[in-house]
Amino acid sequence: MFIDKSMTRDVVNVRPETGILAAQTLMAQKRIRHLPVVDENGILVGIVTDRDIRSAMPSTVLSEAEKATEERRLAVMQVKDIMTANPVTVSPTQTLEDALLMIHKLKVGAFPVVDAQGKVEGIISVRDLMRAFVNVLGLEEPGALLGIVVENKLGQMKKIVDAISELGVPFGSILVSRVWEEGKRAVFPYLLTSNISKVKNHLRERGFTLLDPMEWYLDQLPKR
Amino acid sequence: MRRTGFLYDERFMLHKTGPGHPEAPERLTAILRGLEEADLLSKLIPVPATAAEMKWVEKVHSPEYIHRFEEACLLDLGELDSADNQICPQTYETALLAVGGILNAVDTLMEGKIDNAFCAVRPPGHHAEMKEALGFCFFNNVAIAARYLQIRWNVGRVGIVDFDVHHGNGTQHIFEEDPNVFYYSIHEHPSFAYPGTGREFEKGSGPGLGTTLNSTILPGQGDEEYRRKIMRDLIPAFDEFMPEVILVSAGFDAHAADDMSDIKLSTEGYSWMVKRIFRMAVQYADGRLISVLEGGYSLDLLPELIRNHVRILLDL
Q: Which 8-state DSSP code applies to residue B12?
């Protein structure tokens, strides 16, 4: 799963000399929150976010005189004055997993995707990852989720898949909860069928334990 | 007492879904038995089933899809679009009869010969999309009836109440942009139930923004939550929309004893809900209401639930 398959290619770039008010307008118009900053050759030199711009805005509690001064100052401010220079980037051949882990770890919302020369090829944001996640879960296909708890040992998944396949029911996706109780895992098949009672009865007959839907979770917060 | 029409035809049983399929012809046998035992059949006004004219079906479904459906039955392909939708050579004609019968019920209602109607049809309709069979549904019965009311009878505002335990994705999508058809559905929360649509943030789009409304019920919940959400969501919405006719997608699978869902609505809970909808019809639509069978798979339960349903329509 390479980044270049999921990134936004139609990137809106700005130049270091772009005024920050113009950059703000651009973000609002295009409904985006990150603008890569490039030089005359399209080489990345920085990134500016809606948050950088908001921090540069004058406080709302200023007097009229102070406001006028601030507005004059803003009118001449350029992107290069507030951008993050040399931001963290990814390459098109890095993977979605890389991007996901980096976003998680570095707590940033997007990375410019650049080639070996530093030229911007795209941008990968939380939004792109969300779209990929919705797709992977099969959320836009009609279906229903089941929760099954199994021993944490080899071969359990095969048994589940076999039992469901016997009924001719297609899978949309399968999620596995990594942490369940000691020695157990929870498996959540998303099944593309409305005939869910048939599947449930079949699984019970096969000795599987179904989870009460109110007990489902994928990721439990650490206990305090 | 009200004049209640009753659509039923033995030919609705010709749509065979094969052994073990929950949407079975026996559902109608159970319904009929329930009405007979309570001596209600004689109080109902029969509505005949005739094959629907193609031009009305085409108001909702694409000609390509209709053709594909017909051909799949002619060739006896066994299923349409997925294994959920079992078909036999008679399924296409049965589906056309169901739609035609419902349109007859609409005519009879609009001509003032009945006050309301219950349509015991198969196959059901609310999952059927414009171009796709889904969840045991082929033609979207209620959606076609709503279009027919708009076009043939010039009805300005049609209100649809869908209380099948599953969200009526087809009906919602068909009227998503139509401000003149209000689609309200109450169903098991989509994270726990088929088909996974009908989240509370889905409210229609474009000119139809605000005339789609979904109430979701969590697994294990029942009467109290239904009461709370219907009073909070449906009642104020229809107070404002003021439908001229109410169509009901009547699914009986939210009952605690129906294993198709995790929802625990009781027999009394069903009666309360139907009475509340009936009251809205009287309030805004001069009583005009057509209820169309969707899901509900427990053969033990259907007789009683349908009996209560019809008694409420008769206003006994």
A: G
